[in-house]
Structure formats: structure tokens, C-alpha cells
Amino acid sequence: xxxxxxxxxxxxxxxxxxxxxxxxxxxxxxxxxxxxxxxxxxxxxxxxxxxxxxxxxxxxxxxxxxxxxxxxxxxxxxxxxxxxxxxxxxxxxxxxxxxxxxxxxxxxxxxxxxxxxxxxxxxxxxxxxxxxxxxxxxxxxxxxxxxxxxxxxxxxxxxxxxxxxxxxxxxxxxxxxxxxxxxxxxxxxxxxxxxxxxxxxxxxxxxxxxxxxxxxxxxxxxxxxxxxxxxxxxxxxxxxxx
Length: 242
Prior knowledge:
Elements: H1 17-27, H2 29-40, H3 43-46, H4 56-69, E1 72-75, E2 86-89, H5 98-108, H6 114-126, E3 128-138, E4 143-148, E5 154-158, H7 161-168, E6 175-183, E7 186-197, H8 203-214, H9 221-235, E8 239-240
Parallel strand pairs: 5-7, 7-8
Antiparallel strand pairs: 1-2, 3-4, 3-6, 4-5, 6-7
Helix pairs in contact: 1-2, 1-4, 5-6
């Protein structure tokens, strides 16, 4: 019998991507290891090889990519000696993100209610990663006005008080490379940014973003991570000092 017990809790805004990745590692360690090899093969992590531990920031990036960007389906294993769940990556329309698959399981077994699953379904559909220019700051409301530098569009995004204090200290409107999602009709920053800067993006940066857009049909988390890894390394941190 397949043990699909889920040992985490979900709050009103969803599951931790770290919890999602850990749960799938318990269910199917081979599949989890395969996806991590794919992540490690990306440019930003290639120098680590397959054996060295990921840094804390790379580990969090892997969790976000695995839980939200991968598309998977459960498969039947023909090995009679193995009674666990098996998963595979898929590039067809029938694929589901690990985040949503786990959320649906939790809803089915009564671990979360109808409102929570609606939030998580909305988050799963709307979330995407891109490079955003900060075009406005509303400290009183705790909101950033972001311009999508890759795919166009403007977003009024809620941020935490600590993040707002960080952005408000900047002398210039900078940029943030990360993921946003829409939950209960409001956009919010989700997860840890790949890169942040207190300065606006340069012409050189815009050209690199345009090149990345030309080679991908959808917002590409690994492509953004690869691109801004070099920038982060140049400044020695993920936050560029003004």
C-alpha cells in the first residue's frame, strides 16, 4: 500500500516550498534526486558539481523551482518489491506542480479547507518569476509598484514591513528579481528574491533580459537565476549596495 501521509501544515496563504520538496523527497527519493541534478546542471550551480552541498540560498531557490515550476505526474511502478509513490517530470498539459499536487492531496484528506485550497490554486495559476523595476513605493500601505522588465505590465504588490523598510531606505528606485503571485485578488512577493538592487537596471541589463526573453516562451526561473548569479557574485551579495 502506498503511504502518502503528509506531515506538514498549510496556513491560509499556502505551503512552504521547502516543505513540499522535503515531502516529495520522502515519497520518492530517486525522483527528488533527479530533479536536483537538473537544477545543479544550470549555469549558476554547475560549478558545484553533483556532490557538494547547495548553499542556503541555492537550496531555497531549488525548493521554489521544484515546487512551483516543475510539472509532474504520478506513475505506476512495476517493481513489485517497491510500495512507495513514484513521480516523473512531464511536459504535457496533464502535468501538475508538486505544490498543487500536495495541496490537492491535503484538501482531499481534510487537512485544509475549501478557502485554503482556493488560495493555493490561485497562487499556483498566477505565480511567475521575472525581473521587476521598482517604479513606486507606498510606505503607508506597504506596497511596491513594479514594472515587469521582461514581459511588460505593471503590478501593485504587497510586501512585508521589513521588506518595505529595506526598499524605502534606497535613494533610488531599484529592481527586484523574483516571484510574485496573486492571492485573494492581491499581488504579493513570494519566496526569496534571486537578486535585489537599489539602483535601476542598466541598459546592459535590459539587453540581457531581452536576450533571455527571446530564448524562452515563458518566465524562466533557472534562466533568471543563471543570469543574476554573476551579478550577485560581482557585488558579493544578493543585494547591490547603493
